[in-house]
């Protein structure tokens, strides 16, 4: 409940601030805050009617929002970001299916010794979860993920290097706590997402419930790079690497995100993206003879292509 309250308060504060903004970006010279909001909606559709070659009609939609609040004064910098994604697809002969679902909150506080250096002593907080249940389609009876199941919390200290234009940022933390939350007891009992699973006796009676959280201490590296490769085509490259000191140090969790943003005009944009995730604690689900079977960890790949409307305020 505490996490839900924090998330609700963050969203509510952004909604209130948005009503006070009339420009794409505004700077309050008294408070030293920079505020930026961006909402977008991508849609794709294909319709077949008496099409001799065959095919299924389908429509997809993706709602996305990016909000930032940045405080900068002298040698201090505090960056707060909220990113949300939610996408649905409807195809003939199938129920509505989820295509994207993410809530990400990032907060980084940095201090540097003077205004010349690009190095900051930094503390970073990161929180990731989702809005609704996830399924291993076509099975929609058993959810394999839910709100706060999982949720990931990173909290650490380290050093950050940022270029003057903020188009290149990398962060190194030798001490980062990673907490995995699985607040759904049914999934926790299964040992989903790396938490300790429940214990049962030989008759199937529950001895002890599964743990709903797991905490690790490890090394974190993050990188952000943004560049206009040709006119009106922007490339954004993000990498997150994490390795736990205690459990198999050197076994690296990878989260890699590549996006090409094609600007048509102020309001219309197209984007092409790909995301690759590998986490040894996340076991893949596979449908075998109508039953969900847990298999070993696998690389997760998501590819995206969309054209839509973007409104910045």
Automatic annotation (TrEMBL):
It holds the Pfam family DUF3078. Keywords: Signal. It comes from the Bacteria. Residues 1-18 form the signal peptide. This is DUF3078 domain-containing protein. The keyword Signal applies.
């Amino acid at each position: 409940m505490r996490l839900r309250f924090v998330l609700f308060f963050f969203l509510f504060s952004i909604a209130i601030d948005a009503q006070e903004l009339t420009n794409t970006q505004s700077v309050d010279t008294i408070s030293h805050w920079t505020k930026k909001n961006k909402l977008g909606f991508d849609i794709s559709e294909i319709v077949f009617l008496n099409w001799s070659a065959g095919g299924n009609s389908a429509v997809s939609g993706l709602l996305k929002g990016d909000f930032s609040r940045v405080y900068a004064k002298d040698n201090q910098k505090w960056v707060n970001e909220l990113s949300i994604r939610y996408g649905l697809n409807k195809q003939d002969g199938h129920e509505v299916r989820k295509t994207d679902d993410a809530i990400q909150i990032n907060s980084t506080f940095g201090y540097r010794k003077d205004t010349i250096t690009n190095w900051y002593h930094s503390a970073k907080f990161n929180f990731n979860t989702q809005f609704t249940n996830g399924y291993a389609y076509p099975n929609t009876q058993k959810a394999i993920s839910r709100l706060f199941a999982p949720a990931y919390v990173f909290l650490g200290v380290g050093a950050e290097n940022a270029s003057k234009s903020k188009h290149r940022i990398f962060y190194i933390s030798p001490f980062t706590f990673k907490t995995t939350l699985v607040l759904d007891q049914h999934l926790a009992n299964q040992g989903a997402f790396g938490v300790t699973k429940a214990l049962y006796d030989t008759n199937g009676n529950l001895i002890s419930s599964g743990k709903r959280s797991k905490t690790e201490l490890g090394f974190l590296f993050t990188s952000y790079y943004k560049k206009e490769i040709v006119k009106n085509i922007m490339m954004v490259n993000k990498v997150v690497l994490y390795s736990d000191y205690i459990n198999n140090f050197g076994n690296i969790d990878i989260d890699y995100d590549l996006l090409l943003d094609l600007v048509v005009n102020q309001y219309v944009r197209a984007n092409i993206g790909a995301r690759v995730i590998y986490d040894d604690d996340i076991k893949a689900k596979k449908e075998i003879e109508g039953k969900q079977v847990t298999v070993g960890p696998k690389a997760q790949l998501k590819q995206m292509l969309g054209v839509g409307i973007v409104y910045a305020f």
